[in-house]
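Hi R.,

As promised on Friday, here is the backbone we talked about, encoded as structure tokens. Could you run it through your design pipeline when you get a chance and send me back a sequence?
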């Protein structure tokens, strides 16, 4: 398993994180690992775009089709 060092954190930030770890009944290290794990599961805009492009390959659906579908949906709600 890898080890990570983070430098230049303010004392206030570390205190707040330690307090949250304590409130969640976790060690400081376990709490930080959970934060890193959650952050790694959030998809970035770039990843979402890449996934969308991959999904749409060969589908025949164009950006214009998507825009038209959105406009139809909005018009139906009005």
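Update: got your reply. Pasting your designed sequence below so it's all in one thread:
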């Amino acid at each position: 398993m890898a080890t990570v060092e983070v430098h230049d954190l303010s004392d206030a930030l570390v205190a707040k994180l330690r307090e949250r770890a304590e409130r969640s009944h976790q060690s400081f290290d376990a709490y930080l690992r959970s934060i890193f794990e959650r952050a790694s599961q959030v998809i970035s805009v770039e990843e979402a775009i890449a996934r969308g492009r991959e999904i749409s390959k060969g589908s025949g659906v164009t950006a214009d089709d998507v825009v038209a579908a959105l406009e139809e949906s909005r018009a139906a709600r009005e």
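One thing I noticed while checking it: The mean pLDDT is 92.

Thanks again,
M.
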